[in-house]
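Homework help board

Subject: predicted structure for assignment chain

Our instructor gave us this sequence and asked us to write out the predicted structure in token form, then describe one feature. I got the tokens but I'm not sure how to describe them. Can anyone check?
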Amino acid sequence: MTEASAGPDEAPEGFSADPSVSVVIPAYSMKRWPQTRKAVESARHQTAYVDEVILCIDNNQELLELAANEWPGVEGTPVRVLANRYDAHLSGRDEHVKVHGESRRFGAGSARNTAAETVESEIVAFMDDDAWAEPDWIQRLLSVYRNPSVMAVGGAPIPDYETSRPVWYPPNFDWVFGCVYDGLPRSEAPTRRLIGANMSVRREALEAIGGFHVDEFDDLDLCMRVAARYGEGRIIYNPHAVVHHYVPRARVTWRYFWRRCFFVNRAKIRAFRGMGSAASLSAEREFVWMMLKKRSVVELRRAVRREPGAIRTLLAMTAGVALAAAGHVRGRLDQLTR
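My token output:
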């Protein structure tokens, strides 16, 4: 473990008396180093006081050494660089390939656990290594925690495209590449799901649920367990808390779209089983209902007006839901055969 100096115990004069917060960023790839560095710097330069930024490196010694030499003794918000101390997720690489269409040596949930276990701040905020935060990101998250009943808060990961967005891509399927999607609240409101690239939780709540239990669906796992322990309405979405999430060219292709729709929902069944009584399909049912009630109507009206891509978008939505349903059924069959 390599670490830089720790931050001060209290926010300096001029900052608000919001709960203390640390930012955790899991990372795994040298290819993302420019993005990872940008992510860390954006978390360091916030309008709200941040105790520290913790960069947790998963299974990559070269990246660990590079990061450890980047921020020692830096002025302002300190950066600690840690190595993920867990490795059980490495045996599940084949499943990761199915879900993401590529081989990655990455355990996001366990890396987040490694970092969070060292945090002393009241709030732990999480961001991905290929995202960068707006300067008021933390301030927007912390403002929601002024309500003591709130246990977790997330914001909007806005897509930062490597290339142009395909005209056929359905706005309600942006969850496929980890970004805010049509169907989430448009103003601050309770929600059932947060997105891992932009979420936070009270440290006491994270400890109470035993941290993240999985690597593939760590954000889903967090939300399910927090809701089960503390009740509905304790998880809040604030669309004004913004990070920008990089979307490479490969993630807006048809191949990536159909694989994610099918394999994510297939793998969810096993994740749900691990959550026991905390698991719920209510968000999935709401997603389908909103598509039938709202989004499909919007696309049909666009098609009538002969707007570009409307028919293809409608077909892609229909295919996405069908593939998700097929993945769900296959996941249940997998469990029966096991």
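Reply (TA_rk): Your tokens look well-formed. For the description, you could write something like this. The domain at 2-337 is CATH 3.90.550.10 (Spore Coat Polysaccharide Biosynthesis Protein SpsA; Chain A). That's the kind of observation they're looking for.
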